[in-house]
Every structure is written in structure tokens, then in C-alpha cells.
Amino acid sequence: MRLTLRAADAEAAWSQLVDQLGPRLPGHRPLAAPPTEASAWLDANLLYLHGAPTAAALAQRLEPAALRATVAGLRARLASPLFAVGEADPRHDPLGLRPGGAGREAGPVVTASGDLLSADGRTLLLYLRTEMPAVRLHAWISAQLAARFGVDSGIDVIVLPITPTTHGGAQSKKAAVDLLAAGLAALTLVLALGLRRVRAAAAIVIAIGVGLPLVLLFAGGVDSLGAPLLLAIVAAAVILAVPVGGGGLASALRGSAALLPLLLLPYPAWQRWALAWALGLLALVLAARRVAPALLRLCAGREPAPRLREPGPPWPRAAALAVCSALLAGGTWSIGHVSGDILLEDAADLALAEEFFAPGRLAELRSEGRDDIEALTAAATDAGVLEALGPAVLPWVDAPGALVRGEAACAARHAELAPLDLAGRVELLRDLLAGQGLRADAFSEALRALDPERQPTPEAALGGPLAAWFAAALEHGEHGVAAISRVQLATGLAEEQALPAGLRGPAVFAHEEQRSRRARLGVALAVGAWLSAFLTWLATRRLATAITAALIGLATQAGALMVALAAGFTTLALLLPPLLIVGAMAADAAARADRPVPADSRPGLALACALAPALVLLASNEPAWRGCGLVLGCGAVLGATLAARAAPGLVALLRRGEEGG
Amino acid sequence: MRRAGWCLAFVTCLPGHVLGSMSEAAAVADGLAELPRAVQRRLELWQKPAGGQLRARYRLTRQSSLLYEPLVVQGELVFTAPSRLELRDDEASGAITTIAGDALTIAARDPQLARAGPAPDSPARRWLQGHLLALLGADDVVALRHATRLRIVRGGALELCPTPGHPARQVIRELRLSLDPASGEVTELVLVEASGDVVTLTLSEHRR
To answer: What is the pLDDT, as a whole number, of residue A38?
Structure first.
């Protein structure tokens, strides 16, 4: 939830509200340790925590001469008017032993209740973990502001729900329904013009429309990512209907297997769609072939007149081979330019990222144990791993383990510190401070921290000033306790940058995807081509036809991929389904190319039916839909051309080779 | 005659109206609008043409719970517009404070003593550094008003506080300045820190 101070009349209450609002809200979780308590804990345990100086460095720092120079330097720097902002508070760490935040970018600051305040102090970010609907939560917060802080206006409250998809919600569903309606209307128009029979066109679209709820059932609903696929499945069913593209059971099977390669990839949404597409397309084709003619007879419509049109002359074999080879080479080169980024950020995410962090770049690390002590001990080990990655990889870390150390680690450190005679050095430091006119009592906290018996063990942490924050970071489950560390992943990480194994989050997944995107794309396209070839071989029992179908499918995908990349659509996860669809449809057209065109087939109309939804998608205002439309449109044109002109030459070439062999 | 009289009145009023509008526009452009009149008067006295250099002697007094006695040092301040400031203490046991652009360095004058590196970035550092430069530059009201509440306190000093909720308030409570009534130069700066320390910087012998 984000609160922004807008008007001056709320300024009086703002500073109070910043520190006190969070704990009054339902499900409030601190985003960072409260600074005062964290500072007290760090100061009290600075000899033991991560980043503390080694025993040798500490011995060097506590040499009498070094101590004398440190105290004299401190006294000298006190003469600067900017001393207060020039270094950490000397009362707590006069020797500069505390691990500094050097390298960390100046950003939001932590409030007393563990929330984040933007650097300009006008925006407050709170994290609430509640099932309360956003509207009700908004009303609740407004009521709190008015009742507890006397603020009626001047503060903008924005509730940012964390949902599985950032584009979810009623607005997204409405846009998907609008898209589907526009697509169906476009298909009806194209069919009516192509068949010259309005009732026949309406019968096909109605029959397919009746089957759509079944597809929705298979897909588990429709969201903004699935909407283009829903439109594409309707178009594919229309194309496979008898008066349009024709084709038998083999064509329907080839079409329905289009998305099956997605089952091999780790995208749950696409895996679900792979099965929904296969079952849904078969159901829709069945509806178009069985229900549509019955509907037409019912409303006494005339059957569309058969129109036989010969395709244009095929290209010479060499030209066909050259075009396909060029497309495949270009496609292979293009694979290197595909982006593995899967994070879709909307305006609210970007606004949040500007002042705090991008929500999609947060990741969690769960350190598990049988009880609180074990979980915190494991978290301490994990915090060392996170710390080692540095601020270049993790600009923001909120890890409970960074503020504790396990029993064994504390004992080892205690043994290291034993020979340093810390008590004697503390006495010397007191004398030196007094000698420079400094009150040793003002540094008493820092001097007490040099006592090696004060150790940040998990037990001490759970009974110390940060106990509430540690408790909020622990999650109790059936099998034990997990300590949750939260980090922000930097953008633009190198591909070879390794991340801790247990780190989970969209940005971590995206990073893994970035590393394996080429392999994923290659595997999906190769499996798609093999499936097309295998199904074609089963139907025709001709190897040359099967290989040609696969080649034409791959060449079509390569061409569509190049166009999409040239137009700036580079996200693999969004390009993959339309690429597989155009590949399968092109392979199907190529498999039928070496046979005479059946009387009930209209290749031109089939192409128009493929282009109509693509144009609807291109006209939408959703970038992901436009990319999908571009791939579907280019793929349809390229696939139809290659299947009609290049496939016969390739089949002849391969048969000649087969016979020669 | 009557027509000539009307014309004369018109041509007299028109420049007056234009000049009035221009001064109002200039006040808005300078960021003086919406400020209390007393603050506006102080800022008008304080403002000077941009650029140039300022040299002055200073006497710094720090009252702090860290010290048995208040710390008093003297030295020379050199400000070069727009963003370089150096305060060099006369005593060998003092410090040299340098602001160069965004960087702040506080070092002991004695090179044998422990030397601290550039100060870490923080909202408080940015606020104080930015306002010190703006105050000595004496030309940019917008920079002076950034994230700041201005008011006149008892004694006629101009008080600058970080706005409510601003993270700089965790370190800085207020910054008060007194101006020379004749030249408008800053004669005294009092910094009240959140820790309770009070730093008084008295400037004299200004040479701009």
C-alpha cells in the first residue's frame, strides 16, 4: 500500500502518521527492521555480526597508537559544522568498527514501524498481508487516517494488490471479452464475404461459439495472456471447417498438437493451454463440421457453392530451397536476440520502482528449521551467502539472519577475540577520550559493545529489542519454522551470475529463463517440427512430405520470429505460443500441398480467416497482444505462400533424393 | 484637451501596470510567492547576483554532550559558486571540510591522524549540504526552499527546517541564519541537530 502526501494541510499529521500508521493496519508486516532497535542491536553486537573486522584487523585497530590517532581524529572532525552528516554517530561507534553501508545506493529510509519512506519523505510504503479486498482496505485506511490522525484530505492512498498476474482483474477480463467479440465479428464478416452466404458464415461462427465455453473450461478461465490464444483457436477451427480450409482428421490432429511442445517448458499457464488447445481445437472442429451443417439446414440456408481455384505455379526447386534456407538461417540468428524477460510491469509497478523497488524484482529465501532457533541459525548461514553477492546484485536486503549468528559461530569468534585483552583496551580508550576533552560516558554504549560476552545468538535475538521483528520474519508451518529473508534483485544481471539455490521470486525465475531462453525456444520449435513431421508421416506414409511439412513449418516460424524481433517484440514467453501455432498451420498446409486441391477448399479464404484475428490483435492497445497478432499475421501469410509455392518443389527434390538413395 | 488628458493618463498607467505584473512574475519565478511577507523581505535582502566567490573568516562553536566544554575553532571559509565550499580551521588540531559538487569530505588538519573517506550519501547530508551551498550562493530561492519550511523566529532570524516526514529530520532539527542588515550577507548560522548538539558558525570579514 502506498500513501503520498499531496497537500500542505496534512503535513502536520504526516510525520506522526509515518511512524504510527503501520501497526494499526490489519496484517501489517515490517519491510525492514525498525532503525532505532536495529541500530541498538548492531551496536551491542558489532564484534560478532557479518562484516565485523577480523581478529587481526581488530588487534591492529586497538593498538595504543592507532587508538590515539582515532580519538584525536574524532576530536578534530567534531570541529566541522557538517560532522553530524559526515559519518555514523560516533556515540555508537567511535572506532568505526560497524560494517558500513558503503556501496549501497541512497534510497528509501526505514520508519520507526519498519515501513519505507521515500527519499523525499512524501511517500510511505506499507506491506499488509491480508485477505481483505482492496476497496474495503482502502476504506479502512481512510477511516484510520480520519479517526486517529485527523486527516480528511491531502493524502493519497493507493492499495496495490499483490495478485498472481499483475494484469488480472475485471478490467483485464472486460478487455479479453472485447477482443473475443471483435475477433468473432471480423471472422463472420470475412466468412460472409468469402462464402457469399451470410447464413453459412453465421452457422459456422455460432457452432464454434457454442463450443467456446468448453475451451474456457479446459483453460481454467481467460486472462489477458490467454485471450489471444482463445481468438487464435477460434480462427484455427474456422480454417479447419469444411467450406474454408477443409482437410481431414490429419489436419485437425496436426492443428491440435500445435501447442503440445509447451508441456516441456516450466510455464504453468502455457502447460495448461497446451492441453486446452489440443482438446479445445478438436472439440471446435467437430462442432464446425457437425453442428454448423445442421444449423444451416435448420435455417434453410444454402450450401456454399464449391469453388475450385488452382494455386499459383510453384517455385523452382532451387528457389524454394534457397528461400527456406535463408529463412532458417535468419531464424537461427534471431534466436540469439530473443529476451528471456518474463516480468510484465504496469504503470503502478513502475511508479513504485521509481521511489522504492520494482515489486517483481523482490525475491524470498526461506531458511528452515525445526524451531525458531534452528530457523534463525540457518538464516544466519544464508545471510552470509546473500551478503557475499554484494549490493551490485542485491541492492536491498532484509534478512533476519544478518543480525544473528549461530551458537557455533559465536563460540569460534569468542575464541578468536580472547587474546586481544579487550577490557584493557577499553580502559585505555576511556583515558584517551578524556584526554581529548571528550566525555567517555557519552560513548558508554560503544564501550560496552567491546565486551566479547555479548553475543547475537538466536536466543538473545528472540529476547532482545528486535524480538518483534524477528518474530514477524518467522513463519510457523506443520513441519517446522521458516525464517524469511527478502531481497531485491538488481536489473541487468549478467547471464552467468549464479544465485543462491533457495531464492524464489519472479525476478529469480526470469534470471534463470534469461540463461536458458535459447535452449527453451530451440527445444519447443524442434519438438513442434518433429510432431508435425510425425503426424504427416502417419497420414501420408511419405517421408518426403513429412520432412517438407516440418521444414515449411520451421521456415515460417523463422520468418515470423525475424519480423517480430524487428518490430521490437522480443519476449520469448509471449512469442512462443503464436510461433508454434503458425508453424503447425504452415506444416499442415504444406502436407496437403502435393495433393490436388479439394473442391471444398478455399486457401484464400483460409488465409483471410487467419489474418482477420491477427489484425484485431494488432489493433489492440496491449503490447503483448500486438506482438502475438504480428506473429500470427506474418506467419499466416508466409506459411500460405511457402506451402503453396515452395512445398511442391521441396517434396519433388526430396523424393528425387529418396529415389536416388 | 479632454482626449489628450485621457491619453496621458492611459500611457502613465500602462507602464505602471506592466511593471507591476513583471515584478509579480519575477517574484513567482524566484519562488518568493506564497511566502510570508517577513520571509520575503529577508530573502530579498539575502539575494545577490549569481556567480563569483565568497571568502570570510569564521568562528565555530559546538555545544555537544560528547564534550566537557564547548569546542571553539576559527578558520577561513572559501565558497566558489555554484558548488564548492571549503572550511579550513586555523588550529592544527582542527579539520578541513570540503564540499565539491555532491561529495563531502571531512578530514583532520593533521595528516598523521586517522583520515575518514568521503561521507556516505544520506538524505540528511544532501539536505544540509544543498542548503549550505544555496545559502552562501545567495541567488537560488528554489534550491533554498526545496524540502524546507521557512519562517522567521524570535530575534528576526530566518529558520529553515526539513519538511515534515523528510528523512533529514532524523539528523537535523533546524538551521537558523542571521543576515547583515546592510549587505545581506550571512553573519551567523546555527545548526540544531537531532542529537542535541548545537553548532554556531559566525561569519565575518566577508569578501565577495
So the answer is: 87
Distance CA A184, CA A612 (A): 9
Cell numbers describing residue B103: 561529495
Q: What is the pLDDT of residue A100?
A: 59
- Asked whether B177 and A26 are in contact (CB, 8 A), the reply is no
Determine contact: B197 vs chain A, CB below 8 A.
Answer: yes
Mean pLDDT by 10 residues, chain A (661 residues): 67 80 85 86 82 83 88 91 84 76 60 85 84 84 83 79 52 76 90 82 86 86 83 89 72 89 86 92 88 78 58 82 91 81 65 77 89 91 88 87 89 88 89 91 86 88 88 87 89 83 84 79 90 90 90 93 89 87 91 67 80 91 87 93 88 76 53
Phi, psi at A121, each rounded to 5°: 75, 10
What is the model's pLDDT at position A398? 87
Instruction: Look at the block and give the residue holding cell 479486498.
Output: A133
Query: In angstroms, rounded to a whole number, what is the distance separating the alpha carbons of residues A550 and A310?
Result: 24
User: Would residue A390 be called left, alpha or beta, if left means φ above 0 and alpha means ψ between -120 and 50 degrees?
Assistant: left
Does one domain contain both B25 and B44? no
Give the CATH number, domain containing residue B63. Answer: 2.50.20.10
Asked if A583 contacts A554 with a C-beta cutoff of 8 angstroms, the reply is yes
Alpha carbon A259 to chain centroid, angstroms? 21
From B194, which residue of chain A is nearest by alpha-carbon distance? A84
- Is there a single domain that holds both residue B170 and residue B193? yes
Chain-centre distance for alpha carbon A437? 58
Residue B190 has pLDDT above 90, yes or no: yes
Q: Which three cell numbers stand for residue B57?
A: 573568516
Inter-chain CB proximity B171 and A79 less than 8 Å: no
Alpha carbon distance A134, A130 (integer Å)? 10
Average pLDDT over residues B34-60: 87
Q: Are residues B62 and B133 in the same domain?
A: yes
Is B143 an 8 Å CB contact of chain A? no
Residue B98 in any domain: the answer is no
DSSP state of B195: T
**Pairwise CA distance, residues A368 & A377, whole Å:** 9
Same domain, B140 and B199: yes
Q: How many domains does chain B have?
A: 2
Count of residues making up chain B: 208
DSSP state of A132: S
Q: What is the mean pLDDT of residues B182-198?
A: 92
Q: Which three cell numbers stand for residue A660?
A: 536416388
Selected for mutation to probe chain B from A14, A78, A87 (highest B CB count within 10 Å) is: A78
Print the domain residue range for B64: 36-78+124-207
Query: In a 10 Å sphere around its CB, with 0-12 CB exposed, 13-18 middle and 19+ buried, how is residue A600 labelled?
Result: middle
Buried-state track A409-418, b at ≥16 Cβ within 10 A, e below 16: bbeebeebbe
The answer to whether position B93 is within a domain reads no
Q: Is A623 helix (H, G, I), strand (E, B) or coil?
A: helix
Contacts of A90 in chain B (CB under 8 A): 66
B102, part of any domain: no
Radius of gyration for the alpha carbons in chain A, expressed in angstroms and rounded: 33
Q: If you average pLDDT over residues B158-180, what whole number do you get?
A: 90
Asked whether residue B152 is assigned to any structural domain, the reply reads yes
Q: How far is it between the farthest Cα atoms of chain A?
A: 111
Are B66 and B128 members of one domain? Answer: yes
Work out the burial of residue A124: count CB atoms within 10 Å of its CB; fewer than 13 is exposed, 13-18 middle, 19 or more buried: buried
B122: closest CA of chain A, how far (Å): 6
